[in-house]
Design a protein that fits this description.
This protein is α/β, with parallel strands linked by helices. The protein is built from 13 helices and 16 strands. The chain folds into two domains: 99 residues, 2-Layer Sandwich (Threonyl-tRNA Synthetase, Chain A, domain 2); 284 residues, Rossmann fold (3-Layer(aba) Sandwich), CATH 3.40.50. The relative contact order is 0.14.
Length: 400
């Protein structure tokens, strides 16, 4: 019911006859009047209102002296006014886009189970990374595109961040060949316990679990970037897309960092530099942190990673450090794997739940299978070799 339930409850028959989008406009006007977003005769302009699969999309223009931060502050109240979740982002031309999510997220507090058929959708993209389930379907980022080439993710322990990484990296290993995707992993939490399940996969080029190991991984990435620069120069091209267009084969690379704050200063500087120049060589950083504050999260890092994703944070300040708004601080503790992402637009997502035993089952054939020949077509995606029944994926107590 969403917005219809909210506006119809206790309303007169005449109110119920008002067309739904007109109701949205009326409620917004009243909200602006009562929320301090108007000043005298100045009030936000409400443009087009479009009904979508997930709720409503509204174009808003603020008057001088008000900006997106003022709207961010009011989003919890605005969502409550519509019995919905609200998000807002700038469109680049001075207007704001307000999203009113009146549909619930699939999965909810029980989580959304990993599905091979959904994970396989990464193959529809040059280098896809599965984000999770949103209100308009299963959401995959094509990290080969400049606007999605790097991800900054943050959230407190137990919010679902590490398990989001697990399902994404498993999807890459089971759906791309080592000639198509290469992984550089840094996991310094508990000596890399969570991601050790990826050891032995032919996609993993380097894996560091302490500061010395992390620096070795970053130096390996630097060496590969130099090698690729030489390849591009010899081919007369400037980036991986141009190199592939000449008929050469070259894998996309994911550099996964968990936890950024634990890197030595030299390592942090290298990761920031990778975010700035790596996209041209097919390098895609995925940087995670449990402590998104001014002391541990340099502005230059966020500026060079175009996608921001926040799981539950300790407070609103930490949330703003990642997504420029307070939403992540208000995620219910029981909603494991719930996150707010800023990419092509603002979205709430539910991360897929992939228990460790199920991940190990998925990766076992990948580790046991011989390395493919140079001809990529000889590699049959692992995900097509296993049915859901064979995998027997079930939600377990340790899923999150």
């Amino acid at each position: 019911m969403g917005i219809l339930a909210e506006v119809a409850d206790g309303a007169s028959a005449a109110w119920r006859l008002i067309e739904p989008k007109a109701r949205v406009r009326l409620i917004l006007r009243q909200f602006f009047e009562n929320s301090g977003l108007t000043k005298g005769d100045f009030r936000p302009s409400i443009g087009a209102i479009n009904q979508t699969d997930y709720g409503y999309r509204v174009i808003i223009h603020l008057f001088p002296g008000k900006w997106i931060g003022d709207v961010w502050e009011k989003l919890p109240e605005l969502g409550a006014a519509f019995n919905a979740e609200a998000a807002v982002q700038e469109d680049g031309s001075g207007w704001l886009i307000l999203y009113l999510y009146t549909r619930g997220l699939p999965g909810g507090r029980e989580g959304f189970p990993y599905r091979i058929d959904l994970a396989a959708r990464v193959r529809e993209y040059d280098f896809g990374f599965p984000v999770g389930v949103c209100r308009d379907g299963f959401y995959v980022l094509d990290m080969a595109r400049d606007e999605y080439c790097g991800i900054l993710a943050g959230g407190i322990t137990g919010s679902g961040k590490t398990y989001w990484l697990r399902q994404g990296l498993v999807a890459i290993c089971t759906n791309y060949t080592p000639e198509e995707a290469v992984l550089y992993l840094v996991d310094m939490k508990d000596e890399g316990l969570e991601l050790r399940i990826l050891e032995g996969c032919p996609h993993v080029a380097a894996f560091g679990t302490d500061q010395a190991g992390s620096m070795a991984v970053l130096q390996a990435v630097t060496a590969e970037l130099r090698r690729r620069s030489g390849l591009f120069a010899a081919a007369g091209v400037s980036d991986i897309a141009g190199y592939r267009a000449t008929g050469h084969q070259l894998a996309h690379m994911a550099l996964m960092i968990d936890e950024f704050a634990d890197l030595p200063d030299d390592g942090k500087d290298m990761v920031i530099r990778f975010g700035r120049v790596g996209r041209y060589a097919g390098l895609h950083p995925i940087v995670c942190t449990q402590r998104p504050d001014r002391d541990t999260l340099p502005p230059a890092l966020k500026a060079n990673l175009p996608v921001s994703m926040a799981f539950r944070t300790k407070n609103e300040l930490n949330s703003r450090m990642i997504i420029d708004g307070p939403q992540a601080a208000h995620i219910n503790k029981a909603d494991k794997g719930r996150a707010f992402i800023l990419a092509d637009r603002a979205r709430w997502v539910q991360v897929v739940s992939l228990p460790r035993p199920a991940a190990e089952k998925l990766l076992a054939p990948c580790k046991q299978r011989p390395m493919p020949a140079v001809e990529v077509k000889t590699w049959e995606p692992i995900s097509e070799l296993m049915s859901l029944q064979e995998l027997n994926v079930v939600r377990e107590d340790d899923s999150w």
